[in-house]
Amino acid sequence: MLFWALIFSSWSCFSQKFVAEKSQISFFSDAAIEDITAENSKASSIFNTGTSDIVFSVPIKDFQFAKTLMQEHFNEKYMESEKYPKATFQGKLIDFHSQMSGIQEVKAQGKMTIHGVTKEIEIAGTIESTGNKMVMKSKFPIVLEDYNITRPQLLWKNIAEQVEVTVEFTFKPM
Length: 174
Prior knowledge:
eight-stranded antiparallel β-barrel
């Protein structure tokens, strides 16, 4: 019994869970008539350095736009945020080395759920370890059609077929 207690206690020293103390999610839509950008600082995330598991959740209603009408249309017409209140990712970091400090190039592989549709994806990014903090960054495209987000025919020049998503989490030990 003492043997297993020692094994589990030493294993937990190498595996640590981190929680996002700060998050910044934004997207940019480059369309013919008007560029659209929105930001959200209300996302939550947990990262386990021992297993490389990562999850995050983004509340859709918390995206902030420059124009109130854009925010209203985003929530009501495109994202249907009452029906689909959050976007999530659940996966693993590939090529992450928990004992390495500085900046590492990594890939996140897993399942992204947006607008009720789940897709397997792979996202390139970086993670920087400094002391007891970690900063994870990534920039990747999301094709609206892949997640059943429709663009009305009348507004096809206002909204791009794909948006560029930028993610940044600052993690601290749990």
